[in-house]
Amino acid sequence: MSAPWDAILREMCMGSLTMIWSVFRIIVPLMILIEILLVYKIIERMAAALGFFARVLGVGRDALLPLLVGLFMGVSYGAGALMEINARTPLSRRDFALMAIFIYCCHGIIETTLIFAAAGASVLFVCVLRLLIAVLVTMIAARLPWGSSQNNLDI
Fold first, then answer.
1. Residue at 97 is within a domain
2. Least CB-packed of 11, 54, 69, 115 within 10 Å?
3. Which position has the higher pLDDT, 124 or 29?
């Protein structure tokens, strides 16, 4: 026997609303937290403390702030941070490309991982795997010949 259509539609709607509510409960507080971190320049202090990470990835220290923003907030904020940092302190083409590679491989690690967790995925597995892939791909890309990598971008 097939289920009545109204029961199927009701279940679809309730499941969708439950998932939307779960995502909303994660995203809104996270966005507020990131804004607080940006206003009080905590992310900038984190970037200064993580200078060793820049050396591991093969990028300049100026590229760490957009990396952190992209890591925690996602592609759009990370790309915006890359463009803003580049306007203040121009990055080399190489650093700009490496940061873009890292951000696109591992964007919004906390936000996206929490969304996967709400859907039942393992937080540790998703988070570690995404970060590991981003680091490895960026390290490999840093070892490739970039040609005239000292030219700054004019964006």
1. yes
2. 11
3. 124
